[in-house]
Each structure stands twice: as C-alpha cells, then as structure tokens.
Amino acid sequence: MIFNKTGTVPEKEKSAIIILGASGDLARRKLIPALSVLRQQELIRPDSVVIGEGRSEFTDEEFRTRFKSCKGFCKQLFYHQGITGLKDFIASKGEFKKIIIFLALPPASYETTIEKLFNEGFRDEVNIVIEKPFGRDYNSARKLNDSIHKYFSEKQIFRSDHYLAKEAVQNILIFRFANSIFEASWNSNYIESIQINAFESIGVEERGGYFDHSGSIKDMVQNHLLQMLCLTTMDPPVSLDPEDIRSQKINILKAIEIEEVSRGRYSGYLDEKGVAPDSKTETWAELKLKINNHRWAGTPVYIRTGKALDRKGTEIGLRFRKRPHALYNPPEGTASNEIIFKVQPSEGIVLQLTGKNPGMDLQLSRTDMAFCYNDNFKGDIPEAYQKLLLDALRGDKTLFVSAEETELAWKKLDGLPETETLVSYERGKVPESIFGNIWINFENYQGLC
Ligand code: BG6
Asked: Which residues pair with 303 in a beta bridge?
C-alpha cells in the first residue's frame, strides 16, 4: 500500500494523461513503460486514459502496437494527431478529474506548444509537465517562464528533473532530517569537502544533435547535479510543503559561487552523428564551488560529470575532517570518515569508519557500514518516471523544480569563464583531475551494494 506524506492513502482520481510527442524516444523508453507499471500497481484507475499526440498519423491500434510494454493497459491508450481538436478528443473519452499534459517534445517547441494548448482552450483544469532542458541560459529560461506564465499559472507547471525522483536522492532529506545523529556534524566545522560524481559509460549515442548544443555542464550540472547538491546542503524546511523545501533549495542556489571549471572531450566525439566538425562542446566537466553561507563557508564542493567514462555511477560523498589530534597511528588511525550516498547503479548509503582488527596487537583498519537497498528492500525499486508521473497526477510538486530554481541555476552558470582548451580523454577512461588527489575513492564503494 502506498502512503502519502501525511500517512494516508491518496485518493485515485479518474485522469487523462496526455503525452505530446508520443512517437518520440522519451514516450517509448520511459513514459509508457512507467504508466504501464503504475496501472499494474493499480495506482492509475482502469477508467483513466493515456492519449498520445504527435504529428504522424496513427490509428489507436497502430499506436498501441508501438509499445510492447503497454500490455494490460493497452486499451486505455489512444492516439490523436496534432493539438487542434485535442480538447474535444479528451472529452469524447469521458469526464476526467485530472488532466496532465506531458511535453515530451524538443525544447525549442515549448513556447509555441504552450500557446497552442491555450488556444485549444485548455485552462486551469490542466497540469503541464515540462522536461529539461528548461532554457539554454538565464535569459532564455526567464523568457520561457514569462511566456508560460502568460497562459498558465506557476501552480500548473511541473518542471521535471528525473534525478530528484531517484530513490536514493529522495532519501537524502529523510536520512538527514529524520535522524538526529547527523545534523550536529553537517556543516563546515566537521565536513572537509563535498563531492558529487555523475559518470556515464555511454557516449552521446543517438543524441549528438541535442548534446552538441548543450555539453555536460548545461546537460547535467545545471539541473541534476545542482539539485542533488541543494538536497545535500540545504537547511531543514519548516514543513514538507513543496514550497518550504524549494525555498531552502533556493537559499543554497543563491549562495553558490563557482570558483574553478575544467572541460574535456572524449576522442572520437567529433565523429558522432549530429556533432559539428568544429564543435567546442565538452563531454566532461569538473567544477569547484563554494557555498557562501553560515553552514558551509570553508567546505569546498567538487563536482564532476562526463560521458564515455570507465563506468556508470552517481555518488554524493561527504568527507569529514580528521580528528585534530592523532591518537592512533597512520594510516588508518588518521583516516577521514566518509558518508557516501550511492544513487546508481545500485542504491545505498555507506559510512566509512575506522575500527580495531581482532587480535592481541592494536591494528586498525577501515571498515564500511553499508545500508544497501538490494539487501534491505524486497521487490523492484521504482523507476524515476513512475514517481514523477504519479506525483504530477497527485499534484505534488516536491520533486519538481520551480521557475526561480531553474533561473538561479542558469544564472550561476552564465558567469562561468569560457575555457578554450578541452582536455582530451580516451573513451572508457576518466581524465586526470585538475584538483589533484582530493577525490574520495568512490570505486572502493562499488562492490558494496
Ligand atoms: C539526462 C541527460 O538528463 O540524464 C542525458 O540529458 C544523460 O545526457 C541522462 O545521459 C542521465 O540520466 P540517468 O538517469 O541515466 O543517469
């Protein structure tokens, strides 16, 4: 049974979920499979409908056969060509308490699509989910927000960042604020550095055309990595109201200052489909930031992300300062404690400690206390889009990003120095860090969960 934040079972309402751009990759790979699971789990009612929209012409039957994963809920799936006439088409399927419109479209079409939806007659009855990237820089994000707000209110807009819906990312706030043992040390007096990794082993694959206009910093840091940093470092919200959580994240975004940046590119990137021959786009980025507030001044934050690296892995690490007086001998006796949030591929939280080896001598070794999702939870861990779609249906904005958050995150990046040189690295290798040997050895934690 699924409970919401107040411990009650949320009411399921008869809903229409509209996917604009339904013949695209996102609908096929993520949205329809996620909806199918929600239906299997009876989190979507059997009288709710999913309507795919696109430019191509399909019958409902042809549309359904595109999705192997629709199985039990194929008959709840319909297709409509274009936005014109969509409102009547939805009405022809029944009366719905909730209408969610998911923009699974190229970002360049967001503005005109929103206007078309308004002209088609959609008003307060819809919630609109918008995929990242939301803008290309501060000015374009602001302009996009302004144009959306001409037609729909902020309360109807759900800007999705799928990292926020990853299980281990959702657990950051619970871990920090539902336990009393961490808060006292969660500050620069005790934490030496904060480190975030988002490594991918795949290159740009089929998405060269999009990625080449973006690069690792805009594609990953502006949204996913800064959001994870906010959750790791924000002050406790006064309540679980999404606005209270967002306002604490906004305080962090305001306090962030980027100090150093380095970019790299894997060899062979220029030969990828859709990439300009004279491209200057990075596929690897490392940044050093500081958070200018009372809690974190004095604790540097290091972030790195890239494609075509040696592994797929996302981790957030906090390294504690060493004890001021080394009572035990090096190396283990003076080792720093570390807390690692393993976000993917396997989820868990690991605390690194030093302990005594059994025996007559005083021999110390480093040891890990690992809380691994695989060991602790039976059953599948929900995929991020299942959670995002369900929350959009429930109207819960906790895992969605506000207009102000998006704009602030872009503003921080807009000031970045442009570096001409791109460090070149081999596919499957991690470029040498410009920060030297400061990194937590995240590979040590690979086998743990
Ligand atoms: C997307 C980026 O937001 O996140 C992609 O646009 C990236 O470039 C992807 O590959 C990574 O997501 P995940 O969930 O596979 O880590």
From this structure: 196, 287
Beta strands, E only, 13-130: 15-20, 49-54, 77-81, 98-103, 126-130
DSSP letter at 97?
A: S
Q: Which of 428, 430, 162 is nearest to 284 (CA)?
A: 430
Q: Cα of 307 to ligand 1 centre, how many Å?
A: 10
Ligand 1 midpoint to CA 33 (Å): 17
The band of 5, judged by pLDDT with boundaries at 50, 70 and 90, is: low
Asked if 224 is an active-site residue, the reply is yes
pLDDT tens readout for residues 180-237: 999 999 999 999 999 999 999 999 999 999 999 999 999 999 999 999 999 999 999 9
CATH number for region 15-131: 3.40.50.720
Give the C-alpha separation, 95 to 47, whole Å.
10
Beta carbons of 341 and 168 less than 8 angstroms apart: yes
Q: Find the helix or strand (DSSP H, E) in which 199 lies.
A: strand 191-199
Question: Ligand 1 pocket test: which of 30, 132, 200, 213 has the largest number of ligand atoms within 8 Å of its C-beta?
Answer: 200
Interatomic CA distance for residues 112 and 108, integer angstroms: 9
Atom of ligand 1 nearest to the CA of 210: 6
The pair of structure tokens assigned to 242 is 């999404």
Closest-CA residue to 101 (of 14, 18, 16) = 18
Question: For residue 6, what pLDDT is reported?
Answer: 47
Which ligand 1 atom is the nearest neighbour of the CA of 202? Answer: 10
Indicate which residue of 149, 224, 294, 325 is catalytic: 224
User: How many CA atoms does the CB half-sphere of 131 hold within 13 Å?
Assistant: 18
**How many of the other CB atoms lie within 10 Å of CB of 398?**
18
pTM: 0.94
Q: What's residue 446's pLDDT?
A: 82
What CATH superfamily classification does 164-382+403-448 receive? Dihydrodipicolinate Reductase; domain 2 (3.30.360.10)
CB 290 within 8 A of CB 259: yes
HEC profile for 259-300?
EEEEEEEECCHHHCCCCCCCCCCCCEEEEEEEECCCCCCCCC
Cβ contact 142:407 at 8 Å: yes
The C-alpha torsion from 22 through 24 and 28 to 29, rounded to 10°, is -140
Q: What is the pLDDT of residue 410?
A: 97
- 281 pLDDT above the threshold of 80: yes
Domains of the chain by residue range = 15-131, 164-382+403-448
CB 439 within 8 A of CB 195: yes
At residue 1, the pLDDT reads 35
